[in-house]
Specification:
Length: about 290
Amino acid sequence: MLKIVLITGISGSGKSVALRLLEDSGYLCVDNLPVRFLHDFIATTREDGLERVAVAIDVRSPGDLEDLPAVITALRASGTEFRVIFLDANDHTLLQRYSESRRRHPLTDRLATGGKSPSLQECIDTERELLAPLREQEHVIDTSDLTPGQLRAWMRDLVQADRSSVVLTFESFAYKRGVPGDADLVFDVRCLPNPHYDRELRPLTGRDDAVAKWLAQFGSVETMIEDIAGFIRRWLPLYMQDTRNYLTVAVGCTGGQHRSVYVTEQLARRFSDHSPLLIRHRNQAPVEVP
């Protein structure tokens, strides 16, 4: 059966990294495909017997971008397995990445008036407005504080996940870096005892046994985990009925190193019977779930 992955999102958010990962994973990849050719392209790939195809469409496709949500809906209605992954990043990160790469924003020429080029911020703001309907299509990955290696690992997890059920993701993060934009549910565990103030525990993470044992001794930690787990157990069936394909539960502490990591790992254990299940730690190396 033909599986299609559509990569879209804000320029500078990592679409090239994601597309190269899909190509390395055996997908036929086409970058910057005009929306009006999408139907014919998919029909051709189906006739050729291809099973995995990835397409990148964004603001570089002028004129008919506003038609893309309707095209996606029609393709899904026809039985095509169509997955949309929207890559995003905050403005500060985008401005920094453009400064480092010295590349021009793809909207620069289109927004120029009277021989005057728009600012990079104006281009980003316009792009967000143009892509807003697509952002609501399916799964968003906020790449603001991700390394290319982390993004590749997250993409690999997504394309390998079985779509027969909601992809449940537990994700830890650091509040000092901001709440991730891809979170559906956010829980704050900064009120819990902090291993950071123990010199021996400070360099470790919530995945280390010493930190786990230290946190487990506090009743408030166990109560917090059970309360969050109870909330998810109660409402997950309704999220699934809402034809949702992904649900990301983000758990945050100050530095994203101890408490949020431990709570995330414990929640994943409590939902280990859910498939597919993903674990992400924004401030650490990617985690693979057997």
